[in-house]
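TODO from last week: model Deoxyribodipyrimidine photo-lyase.
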Amino acid sequence: MCGSRLIVRKGNATEILETLSEEYNVKRIICSHSFDPKLELQDESLSRRLETKGIKFDRLNTCLLSPPNHVRTKTGDPYRVFTPFYRALVAGGYTERQIEPNQTVNWRPPVKWPETEPISALGLDHTTTASGRNWAESFDIWTPGEAGALKRLAHFIENGLKYYADYRDRTDMEATSKLSAHLRFGEISPHRVLKAIYEAQFHHPSLTVHADKLRSELVWREFSYGLLDQQPKLHQENFKAGFDGIKWRNNTKEFRAWQSGTTGYSLVDAGMRELWQTGIMHNRVRMITASFLIKHLLIDWRWGENWFWDCLVDADPASNPASWQWVAGSGADAAPYFRIFNPITQAETFDPKALYRRKFIPGFQPGSHSQKSKHASAGLFDEVETDLNTHPIVDHTFARERALEAFDNRHK
């Protein structure tokens, strides 16, 4: 947009920036905060190093409505419960900010552009991922970049917002925004999304309930970054230490069945296959698959969080672990640990005509909670021949009682 170019270099970031700054007489570097604790520490070190060279290093907040834990309780403590945090953000006007019109910036390009390496030099292929999957393939629903993000937003405002509050949990309907990956990578800001919401609501007041629900989802993302700021190891440690005593089973065979979508519970399996095939998963199904791993199989939530981190296009360092801990009951504003989703009734409620399950489980026949497929492939591990006419790997009632006992005995 400003006539700039992407320069790709591989090596020590500080040394590369110093070299480029000296070569092109750079006096100011502008970037965005990531609010990832590890990256923030690196940026602080980089800032101090550059300042000794006379280079100003400006980090701006472009990805959140408010810096993590900037809004606090009356006693000055960070919020640990979502609803009061949401109310405080609304009261503070953070959900009403309008962005300024685009301004033309006349950047003066260099006479000679710096040399750049090809993207392939970074080694971002399937050999670098935990799953062994090349994640540059099969994501035809995404159009990366600002133009793709704005197009997605416009499509949702026009076609999906009017259904959002009522049908966002329905797996068989297109009622979600699909903006999460664009937000994750800074291709669109939450301020831009808010502006579009308010404009739609202004012209169509009947959209208010749906607009409010979407705003609350944006604020959940804010809340998650607040938790990450309070607990920088959110992906590794229970937010509530009282859950450290849970005795996990961690059965690797059952974990593999969950990964590959061969548990025998159709909605769980459809969700895990959607994840593998597309890099996303319906928001309702994320909760159901996470609950199944944690409660039905008693497998450590960190195993699931790591798998989602590797597979999800929109996985970020705050929302991913915060949501997993919410399901596990170990998070700050968590679902009660005794809430255990029934994957059978969840399928009947949120995929009543089995449209979602048929889409991701070829040959699926409604009326049975196990897969009825003519295909022997496990979907995830294509080289593994798997009989999909299987019964559920664990009985729901038995699993529920086992989980309640394990969670109740976590202090013993």
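Done. The chain has three domains: 1-60, 63-103+138-230, 241-408.
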